[in-house]
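Review box. Two proteins, two foldings.
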Amino acid sequence: MSKTEKQAPDRTAATARPDNGGGTTATGVSRRRLLGTAGAAGATGLVLGAGGGAAGYAATRPEEPAALTTIGATEAMFHGKHQPGITTPLQARGHLVAFDLVAGAGRKEAAALLRRWSAVAKELMAGRAAAGGADGPGHDTGIALDAGPSSLTVTFGFGRTFFARTGLADRLPAALDPLPVFSADALDARRSGGDLWAQIGADDALVAFHALRALQKEAAGTARVRWQMNGFNRTPGATARPMTTRNLMGQIDGTGNPKPTDEDFDRRVFVPASPGKPQEWMEGGSYAVVRRIRMLLDDWEKLPVEHQERVIGRRKADGAPLSGGTETTEMDLDKAGPDGRPVIPGNAHARISSPEKNGGAAMLRRPFSYHDGIAEDGAPDAGLLFICWQADPFRGFVPVQRKLDRGDALSPFLRHEASAVFAVPGGAAAGEYVGQRLLES
């Protein structure tokens, strides 16, 4: 099965692009190695969602055209009510990068940069070459030649410091107020904050790096990289059936996430309309809390599995709550064992972080794992690039983290090493660039 998303009203979609019947895709020549005919050898792996479309490739290639796999063919839409990369299914590879505007760069320069970035992101997400932004010449590096879109998404956001530096302090949302200090924080200021932020995700490492490199090149002279982090998830198709991903502790991670089908999903995740108010430009947007959380894996892996399960409150094998059932069974927080104690301990991570224990506070977690090498003592520098999305971090992330900070059994095995919050505006309509409603208001 493809991880292609079906187009829904006002929702970002991912879909494999058909051609226009004339040998090239309807929106132009792709950078990918294009398909041969549907009856060609090797073409049987095409998903039906691809429409069976095939486009001719330059005759200078000596080898026979090869069919795109479902992973390479899947495309996310750039334009929409919301930016891509929020409700898009987890991708196998990710890059997070924050930029600071250079001295002398202000609102005009920032607008030109977002225009260029949006133009490049649109092309790359469609599987086409990055020919440079709308405001200047450029050339494609060739890093992702022959690859399909591979579910590439590029998402842009603004940090708190961006508003003063662009003369937009009166548009600064209260939701970007500094986060409280938490006891597990060991934050590196050099890897925190930032004027601008981009999240890149794809199911192919070269496609993801290609996008990262293109954004960096377009920023030259306007913004410099403040910090950059690399992440990964399980590759689609690596399991016999679609499954919730596991983190580096081996735990199924994301079971309790709100789902787009939930009645209150939009209210929890996306900013509502606020006509006439200073933050009306955030309509359809969301706030991303980004935390680099190091996992103390050597300590964690010394625990017996039964102890790990009590720390989390779920079975390691299948993610089911200790109160019984399957992964998707609701936790019975009142269930007691033969000893009279709760089967899900009072300090279990799943209990403390549950909406029931946080006044309904919820956030959409969409993380990447990371591994940045081995320290001199042999400990892995590895963990979670935690990214959560909500309509207001002070009603989503903050109350939950405060509760976890006061007694989560998992906390001794985690260290929060970097932190940032970004205002991620709604998606760009056709003909718009991301952030246009802010920068041209």
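Next protein.
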Amino acid sequence: MKVGNAKYSWLIEGGCRLDSSFHMSEGRVYNKLIKNAPLGYKSLNQVTSELFNGIRFKRYYVSNEELGIPFMGSSDMLKSSFDGLKYISKKLSKNVESLWIKEGWTLISCSGTIGNTVYANADFVNKTASQHILRVVPNGQLPSGYIYSYLSSKYGYALLTQGTYGAVIQHIEPHHIENLPIPILPESKQQEIHNLIVEASNLRVEANKLLREATSYFEKEYKVEGFTKVFSKKVSDLSFSWASYNNNLECDKIESSFQEQMTIGSVATKCFAPPLFKHIYLSKNNGHPFLTGAELTKFIKKYYRWLSPRGVKNINDYKVEKGTLLLYKSGTTDGGILGNVFIADDILHGACLSDHVIRISTDDLRISYWLFAFLKSSSGIKLLQKMATGSMIPFITPDRLLQVKFPKPNDKLDWVFEKIEGYIEKSSESHRKELKAIDLVEKEIESWQK
């Protein structure tokens, strides 16, 4: 139970509301706390040159990358990489200059799931974003990394999502947050936080570059353009299904281009998805950290839930180890999560994942990293999606996943291994630095309350 005193001025500001949920909300409490910061505060509009959403426009999507501009929605901005982004037409998209993202901005999801934030690094440059992403453009009065860290902290998030007076906001417009208070911390602390975010940002760019270099080898060797919608095939050549997407010719061409091939089943020591279970969540100190499949796609993986072993017969079936390949087994094939593969790093090691995630383990990390790099390529994704079944929501079973073919490791094995190893190390370090920066903000604010 929370207990507090409400001032008469609060009642006037809140339209004479008397319910405690309004006056004791986190947004209300944090707003008061920040405005009493020892060194004072500045409003968001004082430390930014612009606060704006992108313009609304009719979107003309194109499949040819040369004719289009990468376009991201509010969920895309949180992903660990931007593979699979849609492209809007260069020719038909008007005033596209106002949609460009620039390095150093803080991006906020302002529609649907609101309040998610991301710091725009070099990978965001030359990409456009929808009007559902609010852009925070710093003017130099406060370091951009500090502004981002504060807005990403529990204090900034509460003020973004609940407003300064505790009301629940369904959609964020610039005028909703222009007066959001930002505490002034000692300059040395601001700079320390900013430096951590810049370092994390650069590490993320380096990590994604290493991943692209590894997958580019498979893109060059095995990529097949186009998609044949109408074709004929002998009955004897059909796979486990008569559905066209389970027998597409492009996948046949990819497989025939392998000089030597293997199946996932020939190298996997484990390939399974845990059974359904009852989700019982506990406090942080009593449970096992848990992530859903959707949270797995995000670059910064924050744990909001901790799983109780009481609802699970064997909790170890749900934990993953570093180097384990992870595949979300259901979803759509047109830009959805189906066919996307991930790899457990230091951050995911020991965490529990949803029963919708298939785990693939081998007894050789070099093979796991080789397989991961191939499955991240466009050819690998096509072969994975070929194994899907289901009329409404396609899904992949572990048994069918074991039948997926991939090129046998060759003299590029060590090179690919080093690239993926570097990708994992830099991604983990980037993750740690960003969370450390946010933690420094929260601890500094908490120190005022002691």
